[in-house]
Specification:
Blueprint lengths: L4 E11 L1 H7 L1 H9 L4 H5 L7 H6 L1 H6 L30 E4 L1 H10 L6 E3 L1 H12 L6 H4 L8 H11 L2 E5 L2 E6 L11 H24 L9 E4 L16 H8 L6 E4 L6 H14 L5 E6 L10 H6 L8 E10 L7 E9 L8 H15 L9 E3 L5 H4 L7 H16 L7 H8 L18 H9 L5 E8 L11 E8 L13 H21 L1
Parallel strand pairs: 1-2, 6-7, 6-8, 11-12
Antiparallel strand pairs: 1-9, 3-5, 4-5, 8-9, 10-13, 12-13
């Protein structure tokens, strides 16, 4: 079978300022341990407006209005810069305001767990009716809303999780079971956010790439959350629930988990399934995580910055059989951080970068663009984590010098030539490799690049089951235009080889 191709992608952001205070782990733990802290008192004064979030340069890159390289036109820090002509919608997706996203939580709610106040519901309905992707059948799921008294009762007496907008109570998420902690209101809220953001990404994937939902065969959801009950805490299935909302009636699916590396694992799985002929069209999709909102907020407030982690992220990618046009996924050029790899930077880069290149007879400089951990340095540098993409590019360049692929004088410019500034939100799984897939596909179709490498890294030790690090990578390559022509030895080549062997055998018999 031939290599699978990336046939489309989508990227969405949801501005959720009220969820920072009420759902972000940094803030909720601070409330428990130090409820009168200076940080919590100052935080509300460091929240951005929706307009500021839309005009923020990295966000415009994420939804496809700017190319990653164009971030270099803006001096850092970026949080006080604006993109002229910034728009809610980009070629890959959109930046959705909080009120509409709260409405979407109710739309995707299959068990009537979300209660929204009547007047709020009415306003959100009108807004969502204008949304290009919200069909009448979806908007109708908002119903008429609930009385605020009933919402307050659910919160006070039945442990529902409150939903706020503009610092006012507008609804709640009810618990799904009286004693099962895996179905409590807080976790149901988190899971509905994953589902809603994944659904929005899926809908944009279909719309932006003119794909029929019925053509999707399989869905792989690869966020960092897990849904289940007391008998199977991470049983799933986000994938099928998202496919259902998008009316992908011919699809089945499953969830893949691997912390930050999961999306790249999922990309490889999708490519393998398509290449093997198991499925023709596979979507990988991931919703966002409320837990990561305001994760580095203390450092941002300390430095008198706005809270930049005020957005939920999501994405979707369609992997399909070779059409002779779209970039191929080289499943023979995979990097793997194995159990025996080790955790030193050199060992990690060797396993993920140079090992797959060696199998293809390629140099480090043969990859036009490396998409590593594309963390936004505006977020990470004030928190003491430095410029993560830049650090990765320096390590790759250093190894290139050691291998003889790169002159020492070219190390300083390697990141500019073969990398990009980071622009992805710190949503855990979102930054690791996959934010570039959409931009890469555009660059391939425009004949701007020949090869790119998508690198996913993960921290398995966070689950307290192992101290192991994790990572995988895959090379994307320009399509040679042969479509379904087989990879490697063709049927004709095999026949010629057999014929040649038979002739040699016959000659040998005659000689005897």
């Amino acid at each position: 079978m031939s290599y699978a191709v990336v046939k489309g992608s989508s990227y969405v952001l949801m501005h959720t300022p009220d969820m920072i205070m009420h759902n972000g782990t940094t803030q909720t733990t601070e409330k428990q341990s130090n409820p009168n802290s200076e940080y919590l008192q100052k935080l509300p004064n460091h929240l951005r407006s929706y307009e500021a979030v839309v005009s923020y340069p990295p966000n415009q890159v994420y939804i496809g209005k700017l190319k990653p390289e164009e971030l270099r036109n803006y001096d850092m820090p970026w949080y006080d810069k604006e993109v002229e002509g910034a728009d809610r919608y980009g070629k890959f997706g959109e930046i959705m305001p909080q009120a509409e996203f709260i409405g979407l939580l109710k739309i995707v709610d299959a068990f009537d767990l979300v209660m929204l106040e009547k007047s709020f519901t009415s306003k959100v309905k009108e807004e969502l009716k204008k949304h290009p992707l919200m069909k009448e059948s979806l908007v109708a799921k908002l119903k008429e809303g609930d009385d605020i008294e009933e919402i307050n009762k659910a919160i006070k007496e039945f442990h529902a999780e409150a939903i706020y907008h503009d610092n006012e109570l507008v609804g709640c998420v009810k618990r799904a079971h009286e004693i099962d902690s895996n179905l409590n209101a807080h976790i149901m809220y988190e899971n509905l956010v994953v589902k809603a953001s994944g659904v929005l990404a899926f809908l944009h994937l279909l719309d932006k790439n003119n794909i029929e939902a019925s053509a999707i065969d399989y869905v792989i959801e690869c966020s960092e959350e897990a849904c289940g009950d007391m008998n199977q805490r991470g049983g799933g299935n986000f994938a099928k629930s998202i496919a259902e909302m998008a009316e992908a009636v011919n699809a089945t699916g499953s969830d893949t988990r691997g912390f930050c590396a999961a999306p790249t694992h999922a990309l490889i799985e999708a490519a393998a399934l398509v290449k093997a002929g198991v499925y023709e069209n596979v979507v990988i999709v991931a919703g966002g995580a409320t837990a990561k909102l305001g994760m580095n907020g203390k450092d941002h407030v300390k430095k008198d910055m706005p809270i930049l982690e005020d957005i939920i992220g999501g994405f979707a990618v369609l992997v399909s059989k070779n059409d002779g046009i779209n970039p191929v996924l080289r499943t023979d050029l995979l990097g793997r951080h194995t159990v025996g790899t080790g955790s030193s930077p050199q060992a990690v880069i060797t396993s993920l970068i140079t090992a797959p290149l060696d199998r293809g007879g390629l140099k480090i400089t043969d990859i036009d663009k490396y998409s590593v951990e594309m963390q936004n340095p505006d977020v990470t540098k004030p928190a003491g984590a430095g410029d993560v993409p830049e650090a990765n590019y320096k390590m790759i360049a250093a190894l290139g010098v050691k291998r003889g692929d790169l002159d020492r004088k070219d190390v300083a410019t390697f990141g500019e030539k073969h990398g990009m500034p980071g622009w992805a939100p710190t949503q855990g799984h979102i930054p690791s490799g996959v934010p570039y897939i959409g931009h890469a596909r555009e660059a391939f179709l425009n004949k701007e690049i020949n090869r790119a490498m998508i690198v996913g890294k993960g921290s398995l030790f966070l689950g307290r089951m192992t101290n192991q690090f994790d990572g995988v990578s895959i090379v994307m390559e320009q399509n040679n235009g042969q479509g379904e022509a087989t990879v490697g030895i063709s049927e004709g080549d095999v026949k010629n080889m057999i014929a040649e062997a038979m002739r040699n055998f016959a000659t040998h018999l005659l000689e005897e």
